[in-house]
Design a protein that fits this description.
Helix content: 25-40%
Largest sheet: 6 strands, mixed
Strand order of the largest sheet: 6-7-8-3-9-10
Bound molecules: adenosine-5'-triphosphate
Order of helices and strands: EEEHEEHEHHHHEHEHEEHH
Oligomer: single chain
Radius of gyration: 17 Å
Number of domains: 2
Number of helices: 10
CATH superfamily of the largest domain: P-loop containing nucleotide triphosphate hydrolases
CATH architecture of the largest domain: 3-Layer(aba) Sandwich
Shape: globular
CATH class of the largest domain: Alpha Beta
């Protein structure tokens, strides 16, 4: 069995007295696409943020590449090449596309590779080349999402964390984004952790997936296994309210 690149062990986390995650455990192996699906407010974003060190895990351990990062400062975690493309995209709206990408490249600390990396992300998302001198805030929602992913990629990540990349986007754009994620994984071997409410596309794409309900992982399996489960379909695919009754990890 391949060793895990990221191991989350019995992690509890939240905001002040509000506990959001309860004993969450999961593994992401090198070269995998792993998905976390769950409804609004389940705690998916909190998990992703906790991996990045803010908020901090109140209990449990997080290991990356064999190193304990549970108490590591956030900038050091980022320095290990865990890149995050956060929910809501959070690009720099007043900076141009190129400047956004330059910001992303800082963490890579590889100035000689900048042009090559820029070419790679522009091949992945050709619209960014066309828009390179346009301010980020003037891009469409889909273009901003592409820019957010591209900016994360400029940091040469070992692990890419994507929080709801399909949120609010038209179906055609969602398809484009998911195809790009697939290509990054299959062609470039990038390990991806994808958090989504869009269960269908996500589970189709993912090697493995987890379901989160009220801050707990209630199910896990291959993407296909989860996609075929009647309770998952009912809750997340057939107009369900995002609540899975029962379910075992
Ligand atoms: P969504 O898809 O809606 O973003 P989610 O599964 O990502 O949902 P979280 O954003 O992690 O869920 O939210 C989980 C819970 O934590 C919610 O009850 C939310 O109100 C709360 N929460 C999130 N961020 C904060 C914060 N900064 N301070 C206090 N509570 C928060």
């Amino acid at each position: 069995m391949t060793e895990a690149l990221l191991e989350v062990r019995d992690v509890t986390s939240g905001y002040g007295r509000l506990a959001v995650l309860h004993d969450v455990s999961l593994d992401i192996k090198l070269g995998e696409i792993v998905a976390m699906i769950g409804s609004n407010g389940a705690g998916k974003t909190t998990l992703m943020m906790t991996i990045c060190g803010r908020p901090r895990a109140a209990a449990g351990r997080i290991l990356f590449d064999g190193r304990d990062i549970t108490r590591m400062p956030t900038h050091e975690i980022a320095g290990l090449r865990i890149a995050q493309s956060p929910e809501g995209r959070r690009i720099f709206p007043r900076m141009t596309v190129l400047e956004n990408l330059q910001m992303g490249a800082i963490i890579a600390d590889a100035p000689d590779a900048f042009n090559e990396d820029l070419e790679k992300v522009c091949t992945l998302f050709p619209v960014l080349k066309k828009r390179r001198d346009q301010r980020g805030g003037t891009l469409s929602g889909g273009e901003q999402q592409m820019l957010a992913i591209a900016r994360a990629l400029m940091g040469r990540p070992k692990l890419l964390l994507l929080d709801e990349p399909s949120l609010g986007l038209a179906p055609l754009v969602v398809k484009q984004i998911f195809e790009a994620i697939k290509e990054l994984n299959s062609k470039h071997g990038l390990t991806v952790f994808l958090v989504e409410q869009n269960a269908y596309h996500t589970l189709k794409l993912a090697d493995r997936g987890y379901v989160m309900v009220n801050g707990r992982i209630t199910m896990s399996g291959t993407g296909r296994e989860l996609l075929e489960r009647q309770d998952v379909r009912a809750a997340y695919l057939e107009g369900g309210a995002g609540v899975v009754q029962g379910g075992s990890p």
